[in-house]
Write a structure and sequence with these properties.
Radius of gyration: 15 Å
Low-confidence stretches: none
Largest sheet: 6 strands, mixed
CATH class: Alpha Beta
Number of domains: 1
CATH superfamily: MoaB/Mog-like domain
Shape: globular
Strand order of the largest sheet: 2-1-3-6-5-4
CATH topology: Molybdenum Cofactor Biosythetic Enzyme, Chain A
Order of helices and strands: EHHEHEHEHEEH
Distance between the termini: 21 Å
Strand content: 15-25%
Number of helices: 6
Mean pLDDT: 95
Oligomer: single chain
Length: 170
Amino acid sequence: MADGAMTIVVGVLTVSDRSARGERADESGPVLAALVRERLAGAVVAHTAIVPDEAGAITAMVRAWCDAGAHLILTTGGTGFAPRDITPEAVLPLLDRHAPGIVHAILQSSLQKTPHAMLSRPLAGMRGRTLIITFPGSPRACRENFEAVLPALRHGLELLNDAAGADTRH
């Protein structure tokens, strides 16, 4: 990380009924946290949590982390077609602006690996100066989706936060 580069404060939220009840170990949240630490220079994972597939719990945690100054929130789980998969619906009302290019990159990359990617419902957008991206619940999909957005992630966060020296050319 260059001198004066922005430190990125990150939250990783796992959305899973079974993990929240302690019936299944959370694998995807730790994968995302490790990817952030290993691949996103200058990032600090300051917040981690597991919540059930309940809109109120998801919304409350994301809002709290935004209010606490997180620059990036990654959620895992609840983006599929199952009746309890409601993460996008819980996050959507929090967004001030959408980031369709991130969603497009995730879907484009995922469709190259499996046709089932079209059954995923990713969402990306901004609340204030926080970027929020929803990922599927599988560790493999989290890895693949994170790698798809990584090349533009730091630059996008610097632009969003008016970080000194951010090149505004797109």
